[in-house]
Amino acid sequence: MENNTELIVKGLRKSFGTNKVLNGINFELHEGDRVVILGPSGSGKSTFLRCINWMEEPTAGEIYLNGELLTEKNIRRIRRNVGMVFQHFNLINNLTVMDNLLLAPMKLKIMKRNEAEKRARELLRHIGLSNKADSFPASLSGGQKQRVAIIRAMMLSPEVLLFDEPTSALDPESIGDVLSLIRELADKGMTIMIVTHEMSFAKEIATRIVFIDKGKIIEEGAPTEFFEHPKTPRVQEFLKKVL
Amino acid sequence: MNSFIDKIVELFSTPEYIDSLLHGFWLTIQISYFAILIGIILGTIIALVDTAKSSKWMVVPKFICRIYTTIIRGTPMALQLFIMFFIIFAIRGFPSIITAIIAFGLNSAAYTAEVIRGGILSVDQGQTEAGLALGLSRTTIFFKIVAPQAIKNIIPALGNEIITVIKETAIVSMVGMYDLNMAAKDIGSGQNMASYIVPMFTAALFYLATIYLITFIVKQVEKNLRKSDLREEK
User: Fold this and answer.
1) Which of B8, B111, B119, B192 allows an S-S link to B150, with CB 3.0 to 4.6 Å?
2) Could you give the angle at the alpha carbon of B12 between the alpha carbons of B11 and B13, nearest 5°?
């Protein structure tokens, strides 16, 4: 890879009490990478993703974003450059769609109101939800909520977008809508990390697949190689079950 | 039956009786109002301490709050009132209304704190995470995201607490204060009407009307706050 290294993870460990979820993860992410994280449930893949923007504070190890070590002090500033999309959308229930989009740019004083509103309207038009600007999240379908959540993350023009099982809580029809929006971001060169169970989507979109089991990366590689010639028995077994 | 109607006429045509009832009612309202006010302010502080992110600075305040709510909720209100009157504020000439307000205020604070704490904890953790992921500060997240959602869950239970305080203030008659409850007993006693039924039912109606009014207001506030939960378009 010629591209700039955006993210470096060194010896990442995370325990919840005595439960060791991540056991030393080393990882690099380059500009324009689209990494899909696979693994059995309980393997720590979501925890790994959530450690990257310190939704979970790492127990040990170092995370660098653009060469800067993440600490308690700078994490708030760094989070602006790392967008996150959650499984359960997490739109702010008491704010309208528009206010959800404006919240961070306004509160963090990154954009002026009219500038932010213009961008929000553009993004809403793009996902075909212009007419929902003044609706509350409760009146949206799951797929609509998730697409709004994605453009909410895009409002701050992040360098990396993290997707934590973005389609796991959706009906099949909405899944297609959400995936095509992610695909579109990918085509624009967005750096993406995604935890998903959508194997065909993983194969299609990923530039690299990372397989985690028991809190460790046990195999990593290009999607064609990973899906057609898996090296480790654990991955072979996993693929036999899911494909 | 005739004598019952006579008693009603007697109560409402004797200015002293009416005066006593209104006096008692006014005292009940005053104690309730200020006690609820103290309860909400102190209760909010306790709830905020209790739900704050744990750190070494919060260990002692959190411990104090827990002890406080445990003691208040674990002992009878009447006993707390006695302790205030006969031990802590056993000062000659100290206004009894202040003592009563403090006693009921401190009591209500413990219950209100639990109501507010429950309301805050009932807000989905995902809402806070969304704010954190966007780089917002904990203060912004609390005021813009958590508090507005928590209030919806707090208002109904808080209405309940307000009603409880108003009714509970009736026990101030045990320390000789002339509230609505005491007024009813006084008017009905031997040296006055010599019949309890009419004054006591009248007092009951006063309590009932007050509480009905509060229930109505709480319902309206609740309805207003629930607007963002509606699925239909505005």
Assistant:
1) B119
2) 95
